[in-house]
Design goal:
alpha+beta, 3 domains, Rossmann fold, 19 helices, 5-stranded antiparallel beta sheet, disordered N terminus, Beta-lactamase, 9-stranded mixed beta sheet
């Protein structure tokens, strides 16, 4: 009977909360958007007043890298296995050189042979975010690496966290999954909504047994790092105020999730900041400051309480991420397609949909994948430059289109450049790629950045393959027509993308011994067939078009490996 009552209360709470969500046009959401614009990066958050059920959120169902926040779900799964009798929290583990190899943290400073209990390792994992301690805990949650991840992830699904997954041990490249999630998110992925669900279960003592929840809360209250959620909370204005939370951060990603417990309000809050150009660590990191400001804004909203010096960041700094087959980096470029004067006031489509400047035209990020074994040739570097389609971004390409995996599998000797176009907008505009010489300036900036990073010795260009998906046709077309490097472009990939500007593609193709590969769904059959017929006599076998029945969004990942396999000679790693 007790379980039924809890279920009914939970359903009632969820139903009430669904009616209490902040309006997308509310003053609070406007404030949060303003903070995101001021401090930069991509923000996701959710906060719930655990007494009233009111919820405020912003990009709450979007998936974000967790960084060390994933250690909170690991702790919860650990205590669940303790309750099942499968793990002994008092068991002692002896620290070895092998344990310390892939890790970091205070345990790295201890001598081999030191021992500690598993539950003490859990405390270090949460309070000091010790990565060696995390691996010690994780390695005791199953017989194999796969079983350990599965045990954590199955626990999360049973608790209603369907978008949260641990993806790997920490600092363990050898076991990193060669999957879209593994490549994009690193050690873990979650949503603000999932984390608030977990935190509410902890608060209501339904996540694990009441005793285990109490123990986890006490551990979380000892969190050493207080530069985000607790930072601007008004402790002096409260009879008591405690924050039980777990932080995480790695260069472009900052996150903090926890419970704010006070006489004014009890709040479950999850804040994620991703794709942030400030790579300088410390309290004044702008992503960290954004998270802290958002936490205070949520507190003010729920309690009715009302209440810095800004600095510039080194946006050209590259954040590198090691993955199977190589590494990818992200940085911001003044030569990127956006910002552009033609979108300084945003963009309104014919149907009336308006896309404001921020965030749709403020993102100047460039993602560069360097395959393992990449070699600069005598003539310079090979590059594959891809322009994404509508309602997407360059990190979504990284996650969804299997380009990194295909590059690795086909042993392609080229830098893959994923250019940020209009960010999650239905807009074909190519920004600076439509300016005379804009593409040349972009490539010069990419190679100058790679030179500073020690990837290449010169900024010379050997060969370029231009790639466009869907709405990415337009920047690709202008690159060929007026980009300034058309003589270096030897190959063109058009993934369901021949909507317009066919004359630009035709003139480029017929201007030399160049090749174009295309795949199209039924809605573009007329355009592809007409283009093929127009150039057949002069281009012959240099045009390869394929009609496909796969969904539009699946065209890039369906054909990328096949087309890359046909790039031979200097395009291949030895």
């Amino acid at each position: 009977m007790r379980i039924s009552i809890i279920v009914l209360l939970t359903l009632f709470s969820l139903a009430f909360a669904s009616q209490a969500l902040a309006s997308p046009d509310s003053a609070w959401v406007s404030e949060i958007r303003g903070l995101e614009m001021t401090y930069g990066g991509h923000l996701g958050m959710m906060a719930k007043d655990l007494k009233t059920g009111e919820i405020i959120s912003y990009n709450a169902t979007e998936r974000f890298p967790t960084a060390s926040v994933i250690k909170l779900p690991v702790m919860a799964a650990f205590f669940s296995l303790v309750e099942e009798g499968k793990v002994d929290p008092a068991a002692r583990v002896v620290l070895t050189t092998e344990d310390k190899k892939p890790g970091s943290g205070i345990l790295q400073m201890l001598s081999d042979g030191k021992s500690l209990t598993l539950v003490d390792a859990v405390r270090l994992m949460i309070v000091l975010s010790d990565n060696t301690a995390t691996n010690l805990v994780l390695d005791r949650l199953g017989d194999t690496h796969e079983a350990r991840l599965r045990n954590v992830n199955e626990f999360l699904v049973k608790r209603g966290l369907h978008n949260t997954r641990i993806l790997n041990r920490l600092y363990s490249v050898a076991t990193k999954q060669n999957s879209p999630e593994g490549l994009r998110y690193g050690i873990g992925v979650s949503t603000p909504e999932d984390m608030v669900t977990l935190l509410e279960g902890l608060y209501r003592k339904t996540l694990d047994s009441p005793a285990s929840c109490d123990q986890m809360l006490e551990i979380l209250k000892q969190q050493f790092y207080g530069d985000m959620i607790p930072r601007f909370l008004p402790v002096a204005d409260c009879k008591y105020l405690q924050v039980a939370h777990k932080t995480g951060g790695i260069q472009e990603t900052k996150a903090d999730v926890g419970l704010i417990l006070s006489d004014r309000a009890d709040i479950a809050i999850a804040i994620f900041v991703d794709k942030h150009p400030d790579h300088v660590e410390g309290d004044e990191n702008l992503a960290t400051l954004l998270a802290a400001r958002v936490a205070r804004s949520a507190w003010n909203h729920f309690t009715g309480i009302t209440g810095s010096t800004e600095r510039k960041v080194n946006a050209g700094h590259v954040d590198w991420n090691g993955v199977p087959g190589g590494s990818w980096g992200i940085y911001r470029s003044p030569a990127a397609p956006f910002p552009h004067p033609n979108r300084a006031k945003g963009y309104t489509r014919r149907n009336g949909t308006f896309y404001p400047f921020f965030p749709h035209y403020a993102d100047s990020s460039i993602v560069v994948f360097v395959p393992k074994g990449f070699m600069e040739l005598a003539g310079g570097s090979n590059l594959i430059v891809h322009f994404h389609g509508h309602m997407s971004d360059n990190l979504a390409v990284l996650e969804n289109d299997s380009m990194l995996q295909a590059m690795t599998a086909q042993k392609v000797n080229a830098l893959l450049v994923l250019v940020q176009g209009p960010y999650r907008s239905r807009d074909d505009f190519g920004g600076k790629m439509e300016d005379e010489g804009g593409f040349k300036r972009l490539i010069e900036d990419v190679l100058a950045t790679m030179q500073r990073e020690g990837i290449v010795k010169t900024t010379s260009v050997n060969r370029i393959c231009v790639s466009g998906f869907s709405g990415g046709y337009r920047p690709a077309a202008f690159v060929l027509a007026k980009g300034g490097l058309s003589d270096k472009v030897t190959d063109l990939f058009l993934f369901d993308a021949l909507y317009a500007n066919q004359e630009f593609f035709r003139d480029w193709l017929l201007g030399g011994t160049r090749r174009v590969f295309g795949a199209f769904t039924e809605h573009l059959e007329k355009e592809y067939n007409a283009f093929a017929a127009e150039v057949r006599d002069r281009a012959g076998g240099r045009v390869s078009f394929t009609k496909t029945s796969v969904p539009h969004d699946a065209v890039p990942r369906t054909f990328i490996a096949s087309w890359l396999s046909q790039l031979d000679g200097e395009w291949k790693l030895e």
